[in-house]
Each structure stands twice: as structure tokens, then as C-alpha cells.
Amino acid sequence: MADTVTPLAELNEALRRLAQGSDLLPNELSVLSDLDREQVKALEEAWPRIPDEARVKVITEALRLSDESVEVEFSRFAAVAVVDDLPEVRGAAIETLRESTHRLTARLLVSVLRDDDDEDVAAAAADILGEFVMRLEMGRFSEHEGEAILDSLRAAASNSARAPAVRASALESLAPRNASWIEGLVIEAYYGDEEAVRLAAVRAMGLSAREDWLEYVLEQFDAGDPEFRREAVIAAGAIDSEDALSRLADLFIDNDEEVGKAAIVAAGEIGGEVALEYLREFAQDAPEGWTDLVAEAIEAASAVRRDSEEYPQ
Q: Which pick of 45, 203, 249, 282 has the fewest CB atoms within 10 Å?
């Protein structure tokens, strides 16, 4: 009876081929999935010997496969690749960890945010940590572990020496947390000098879904930059206040098409009779090609019953 090839032997063969510059076929990538400790050790030893191009390709393909299939689990592979010399490899490794909710992943991301000198990699780590903040706020993640995440994001968001992209991602990731000190960070960012960070403050206001931010969000409806108007419109939809509806309706005909479309979607999200009135009025003269968008917004608005509306007896 022929000997069965062990998972470790199969992995070592794949690593040998990669070290020689060969590619792994898509159906062979599963050899890097769900690694045990012995396999992780073998990967750590072999990884530096694999050529740059092969390392980039295999982690990129693993990322693609993890997006397409729930049958693979590359977090231990990514944890090895995240300390690679190449930012491109580290960035793909970080993205491969996006679906992981394990506390060890959180610790790894905190380390990357704190120590990685590539702003795109650090910003990606901050972005993914936002998922852990959300889980923490929902009571689905350890408070002790969560505090370390909040501390790392707070340090990044408040450090003017960090790249704007990193500060922006950290600020947005903090937004779902209900903590008084986060309000100060958002206000400071909103009135700051860095455009990316100011834009992140507007997004954070929407992500917090707090109505007391509406004043600032509506202020950005008049911004000269359409990107600020669009993000403010999205934030207004998330805050979900009828007080924004008349201003949103004004932006249905914004001179930037993306702003107008976002305003329609936001009105649909807020919903209720007032929103329906604005949307139905606009539908009569909506631009060609907007019919489906407006119809979907009307359908969404119709499904919302505002507290101010009387229920039928």
C-alpha cells in the first residue's frame, strides 16, 4: 500500500518549487490553508528563500482565493507574510486577514499599525481594526483585548507625525465606539489642515450615526469640493434624521452627478413620508438613466416608518 503524502511533505514540496521560482496552480494554493504549528515553522524557514516575484504572486493569489471561497483559511500564512521586506507582500497579507476575527489577528494588526513604516500598509491595518472596534461595541469581542486596539488607533489618529492616510483610517475605525474622547479627535480632525483627515472626520460622523453630528455634516453640503459634499450626504443618510431631508433634496440636482445620486440614496435610507414626497417629485423630471436609482430609493423610503408618522388603526 502506497504511503500517503502528509500535509507537511506537501507543503515542503510547494515551498521548494516556489523557492525555485515556480508558480503554484490555483488548485494547489490550498496547501497554504489552515496551517498547523509545524507547517508554520516550515513556512517561516522557507519564506525568505523564495524570490520576490514569487512571494508577491503567491500571497496575491491567496488573497484572491480567500475572497472567492470560504473553504480556505490563510490567516497563519498571512501572519508570516506580513513581516515580509516588500510592502506589496505585507499589504496583500494584511488584506488576507480582513475576514479573521481572532484576537491573535487583532494583536498582529495592532503591531503593524504601530511599527510598519509603509503608510499604505499601516493604513490598511488601521482600517481592518475598525471591524474589531465594531465587534467590541456590540459586545462580541474581549474588552481587555479591545482596549489595546482602541489605544493603538487613538495613538495613530492623534499623532500629527503619522501619514494623513494612517490618521484618517484610524479615526474612521474609532467612530463606532461610544467614548467621549473620540468626539474630541473628530472635532480636531474636522478643523485640521490635512484634507484626507478632514474628510475622514466627516465619514466618522456618519459611521457614529449620532444625530448631534448633523450640524457639521450639513455644513459640508455647501463645500466647494464635491468629494466632501458626497461624503457628507452619505453621512447624513447614516445619521438617519429627517432634519436633513430638505437639504438632501436640494442636492438631487447637484452639479456633480455622484453627489446627486448619493443624495437620492440617502433620502431613501432615511425614508418616511417626507422623503417620499421629495423623491416622487424629483422622479417626474429625473435625468435619463436615473429611473432605476430613484425607483429603488422610493421603494426603500416606502419601507421606513418614521416615529413622527401615525400607524394605521
A: 45
